[in-house]
Design goal:
This protein is of the alpha/beta class and 352 residues long. It contains 10 helices and 18 strands. It is elongated and about 75 Å long. Bound molecules: pyridoxal-5'-phosphate (PLP).
């Protein structure tokens, strides 16, 4: 206790529905596994659902999936120079934005007598990773000069840091950049990767997708969400993950703390509203496992807050000590729960 229950069949179905949807307009999928720490069973469910690649930001997660024998191309989303030797050994493809790193990848590919494939990421306004468009021609020319590297794609990433929405304008810009580069250097790149789960609305509404032929999806496969506005995508499963934790105290108590005020365990002085006496429940779950704001009670209880190991709830009814309560969780919550060593991960089956 606590435990995260995972329904693989629903993840597979989400991956299948999205793979079929995106394929209708010629777009392949990378299933992104970073929120589930590269769990091989979950990645396998994505593969069975039809994704064409598995991508992860952490090399350790890719290594875990490689070791488990997953039969798909593994893509590293975040490349660090100091890991170049292992990147070449573990990943088939990596996303890159720095020539120093590419040089190092090329060196190690040569040492390991293999070819390493790279996708160059373009900055289109979100201000996370990406080569500035004006610097691209020179960057690509330098990249092409490196032995043992093969440039297989161009990509961009939006709606991650700067909350910039993928739309027809910036996706047309990416298409234009790709075709200009292909013409200039006589390339025929396999992957034109337009973005992530936030690209859903663009995909559904755009008149033309230009030459975009790939998208990288984590959250929409795992939680069924369009992340540009946190909307649920109709037809997908949204509860493939649920967190279960145990009631350790259930009592009627005042809603207002009493005594002399100091700081709480995290250095702040919280404000409370007097709601009279209420039925309060404590569950064995805390900030060390997950932020309380990432949770939603399936029993419709109000989540008042948490300390490191106690989650405080209020509701109408008392609960027997030892009873299990269920919570759904958002993407940040999923990431945190997967990462906490105190949360057991359990695959469950449903009759649906
Ligand atoms: C995390 C990540 C993704 C997947 O994002 P989701 O919102 O989970 O779909 C795609 N591309 C890159 C580069 C990422 O870091």
């Amino acid at each position: 206790m606590p435990r995260l229950e995972i329904i693989l069949a629903q993840i597979e179905q989400n991956a299948r529905i999205l793979s079929e949807l995106y394929a209708t307009r010629g777009v392949s999928l990378m299933g992104v596994s970073k929120a589930v720490l590269g769990d091989p069973a979950i990645a396998q469910a994505m593969i069975q659902g039809g994704v064409n690649f598995i991508a992860d930001s952490r090399l350790e997660n890719l290594a875990r999936m490689r070791k488990a024998g997953l039969k798909t191309q593994l893509v590293l989303l975040r490349t660090a120079l100091s890991q170049a030797e292992a990147v070449v050994r573990v990943a088939d493809i990596s996303l890159n934005t720095e020539f120093a790193t590419l040089k190092c990848l090329s060196y190690h590919a040569e040492q390991q007598r293999r070819q390493h494939q790279v996708i160059v990421m373009v900055e289109l306004g979100d201000l996370r990773e990406g080569v500035m468009p004006c610097d691209l021609p020179q960057f690509i020319q330098q990249t092409l000069s490196l032995p043992n590297l093969k440039l297989v794609g161009i990509g961009c990433n939006l709606a991650c840091y700067g909350a910039i929405k993928p739309n027809e304008r910036n996706m047309a810009k990416l298409s234009q950049i790709v075709s200009d580069l292909e013409r200039k250097f006589g390339l025929d790149l396999r992957i034109h990767s337009g973005g992530n789960s936030a690209n859903y609305q663009w995909f559904k509404t755009a008149q033309s997708l230009g030459n975009i032929n790939n998208i990288r999806l984590g959250e929409s496969i795992l939680l069924g969400c369009d992340t540009a506005n946190s909307n649920a995508i109709p037809g997908l499963h949204h509860q493939a993950f649920q967190l279960v934790a145990e009631v350790i105290e259930s009592k009627a108590k005042p809603s207002l703390p009493w005594g002399e005020v100091c700081q709480d365990a995290f250095g702040s002085v919280p404000q409370f509203r007097d709601r009279g006496s209420e039925q309060r429940t404590i569950v064995a779950l805390g900030k060390q496992d997950i932020a309380s704001g990432s949770l939603q009670s399936k029993q419709q209880l109000d989540i008042l807050g948490a300390s490191s190991d106690h989650l405080i709830l209020s509701g109408q009814q008392p609960f027997p000590i030892g009873q299990e309560l269920q919570f759904s969780l958002d993407y940040g919550g999923l990431l945190a729960a997967m990462t906490s060593p105190f949360v057991e991960k359990r695959f469950v089956h449903t009759l649906e």
